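INSTRUCTION: Work out how this chain folds

Fields: amino acid sequence; protein backbone structure tokens

Chain under study, with its fold:
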Amino acid sequence: MAFLRFVLVGGLGFIVDAGITLALIGGGWSAETARVPAIASAMLTTWIANRSFTFRVARRGSLRELQKYLAVALAAAGFNYLVYRMLLSWALTPLPAIVVATALQAILSFLAYRHLVFSPLVQGDGPSGDRRR
């Protein structure tokens, strides 16, 4: 069930990303430049939604947790891109390559967020180094 919630949050992140990108382009920004605040906004949105909805974290969020979340998100995006490029080199067309790379990224991201970012076993996020629930 948590993975389904994770997929829904990913959809929300996509809507935020695409909506801000298109709004900024409509306001005269270049397509390349518009993606920067759009991606940042989508990552912040998905951090908040994943911690409260997907993983149901009860403790207060911290800057350290956000940093770990962003590190996982960036690593997963890099993984997605490498898989995409590899699949293209094997003569797969772009759309199926995107689908496969994104599906693998979703699984990797879900596991990394669950075990490295939002796990109650991860130490050091509280003010005294403990995790309070």
